[in-house]
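We treat protein structure as text, and this decision shapes the records that our systems exchange. The remainder of this section carries one protein's record, kept here as part of the documentation:
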Amino acid sequence: MYKKLIISSFFLLVHSIGYSQCNTVGAASSSPTLCVNTPLTPITHTTTGATGIGTASGLPAGLTATWASNTITISGTPTASGSFTYSIPLTGGCGTVNASGIITVRASSAWLPSDLGASVKLWLDATDAATVTQSGGLVSQWNDKSGNGNHFQSTGTSQPTYQSNAINSNAAIDFDGSSDYMSAGDKLDLRTNELTIMTVVKYDNTNTGGAIVGKSLYGPGVGRYALLRLNSGDVFGTSANQYNDMLMDINITANAKNSTPETSTDPKIIGGTINRVGTSYATLYENGTSTATSSSGAADNTDYNTSHALMIGAYQNGSGTTPPQGSSYLGGKIAEIIICSSLLDNLTRQKLEGYLAHKWGLTANLPSVHDYKSSAPTFVTATTSGAASSSPTLCVNTPLTPITHTTTAVSYTHLTLPTNREV
């Protein structure tokens, strides 16, 4: 009788003071990247136990958080740029629980190499003065903007010079063609069989060669790559003193070499792609046009992983030591270099070329059919599509009550629909 009285009293006590369910919150419905002053597609978190929310912290200006029907909704238009980690405390219920997530707001809608994501392994940009360490014009370090720490150093008489007005009023790093080079050491072992390189370069004259960038040494060998200009007479036994751009892979025969000798010292966009497991082995691109393709050499599954030094302005000698190979010194200016550990498709490669062309004042060099001849590529918020407003069943030859989907960032449609239906 006594135990029954205690239990009854306990349930009466619980009933009288109420029962609080412990708070829980789900993950954010998205972690978006969008441009400043662009409306946010609302982010939601599902909650249980809570009866409301406290003051949110960490949201960019212009965004607010509300709670209704067990759902937190973040909405608005951001007016500040940056990466924002937010926290929203739940109220009511029991326990201390916060909804959290990340919102990235871009300051500009301009497309950047960083939009290629983790594929970007090296990004050198001479216009970003914060990445260049120089004293009296002599450059001792050029830092990688990709976030992978592939920084280049140079010392003593090997230091190139910084020129603030080198290419169409933009800065570039100038290599003298006789002793200047920079090394990152044994870096950028891509460990892939695909590669994309794109650069902006201005040669000093038409009758000198040199390496733009490479992880290689003089002579044949596996797992190497280099973008350079060589004397065809010295290397290929063709007409002497004809200097040709080339994307080289593995050895001197597995390459894409422009058969037209260099005749201009104008700045250019030069780069290429390598697919070591495909039929088109290497393709050289100059100012947005394919100028050479090679399928020489069997497909090679040896990935890009060597102990050679990653260099700009030269490559290592045949022994893999310094100073670099004498004939590999570049006489010219390097403005920007991007290396990706993937084979960029044509559309994405053209974005990269368009970005470089508009930035460096080289749009006149692009062919008329280039996708970004007239305008620079822009960043587009990821495309989203809401659920259908209905999933109807109707009789044939009966008018359809329109079905709608809410979308963001759609630029075109490609649909398969029943006969006599259109979008």
User: Anything to note?
Assistant: The longest strand covers residues 82-91. Confidence is low (pLDDT under 50) at residues 1-17, 232-241, 409-422. Helices lie at 2-17, 232-235, 346-359. The CA atoms of residues 63 and 76 lie 5 Å apart.
